[in-house]
């Protein structure tokens, strides 16, 4: 990720997760959105949308998609930045200066700055600069633009300029496929039976499921055992 010469140093916690890629994101009901965001899947005849706003409940993958887009730009020697407003709200919006020189700007949790005049004005100004520079912008939130509580009408309008997508939660069937995909990318073979066993005995929140997979991966490697229901039951204490 390129941070350029920003007026305000971003906190060290603002980093991309290594596993936040398009390759390990199971789209399911969100395949159309993933196809739109993933530049490797985009058909040459399809124009790239400059502004895209996505929203959804916690755990559906909004942050993952934004970070995946940054990873993709960076791999192609471009420059991008990921800005989680939940971590930056106490900083000065001056850190937004110069970002129109990037290829991609991703703003996460934009609702965190709703009702803060200096941030709303700073983001409104950034939108205009990005538009003029033709820089891509991806924005994520928990709610659609008009429900965020943003007080600056022009900013609400800007947030609705491009395409607006609601990221849909996965069904249990989709979660089985998502868990199998992540396992496969780790070099693990997970049957549908084992995946269902895990899902029906966990919180079913995707972050928790992937943490379980991480634990099972380590245990499988140490014990040199395949992922079977008896082995999962032993490791997890179920």
Q: How would you portray this structure in words?
A:
It is elongated and about 55 Å long. The model is unreliable at 1-8 (pLDDT under 50). Helix 6 (172-185) crosses helix 7 (192-200) and helix 6 (172-185) runs parallel beside helix 8 (206-223). The protein has two domains: 28-166, Rossmann fold, CATH 3.40.50; 172-236, Helicase, Ruva Protein, domain 3 (Orthogonal Bundle). It has a five-stranded parallel beta sheet, with helices on both faces. Strand 2, helix 3 and strand 3 form a beta-alpha-beta unit. The chain contains nine helices and five strands, in the order H-E-H-E-H-E-H-E-H-E-H-H-H-H. The protein is 41% helix and 11% strand. With 238 residues, the chain is an alpha/beta fold. The longest helix has 18 residues, at 206-223.
Strand content range: 5-15%
> Would you tell me which CATH topology of the largest domain applies?
Rossmann fold
Q: Bin the helical content.
A: 40-55%
Order of helices and strands: HEHEHEHEHEHHHH
Rg over alpha carbons? 20 Å
Tell me, what is the CATH class of the largest domain?
Alpha Beta
Report the strand count.
5
Mean pLDDT: 92
Give, in spatial order, the strands making up the sheet with the most strands.
2-3-4-1-5
Unreliably modeled segments: 1-8
Query: Terminal Cα separation, in Å?
Result: 41 Å
What is the architecture of the largest domain at the second tier of CATH? 3-Layer(aba) Sandwich
Number of helices: 9
CATH level-4 homologous superfamily of the largest domain: P-loop containing nucleotide triphosphate hydrolases
Globally, the shape reads elongated
Main sheet?
5 strands, parallel
Structural class: alpha/beta
């Amino acid at each position: 990720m390129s941070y350029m010469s920003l007026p305000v140093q971003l906190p060290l916690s603002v980093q991309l997760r290594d596993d936040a890629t398009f390759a390990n994101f199971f789209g399911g009901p969100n395949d159309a959105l993933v196809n739109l965001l993933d530049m490797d899947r985009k058909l040459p005849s399809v124009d790239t949308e400059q502004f895209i706003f996505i929203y959804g409940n916690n755990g559906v993958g909004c942050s993952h998609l934004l970070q995946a887009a940054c990873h993709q730009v960076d791999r192609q020697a471009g420059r991008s930045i990921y800005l989680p407003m939940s971590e930056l709200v106490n900083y000065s919006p001056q850190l937004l200066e110069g970002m129109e020189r990037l290829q991609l700007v991703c703003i996460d949790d934009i609702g965190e700055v709703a009702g803060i005049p200096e941030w709303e004005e700073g983001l409104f100004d950034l939108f205009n600069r990005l538009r003029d520079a033709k820089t891509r912008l991806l924005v994520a939130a928990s709610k659609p633009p008009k429900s965020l509580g943003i007080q600056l009408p022009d900013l609400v309008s800007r947030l609705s300029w491009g395409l607006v997508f609601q990221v849909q939660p996965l069904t249990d069937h989709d979660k089985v496929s998502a868990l199998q995909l992540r396992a496969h990318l780790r070099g693990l073979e997970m049957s549908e039976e084992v995946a269902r066993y895990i899902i029906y005995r966990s919180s079913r929140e995707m972050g928790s499921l992937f943490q379980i997979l991480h634990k099972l991966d380590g245990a499988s490697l140490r014990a040199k055992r395949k992922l079977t229901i008896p082995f999962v039951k032993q490791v997890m204490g179920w």
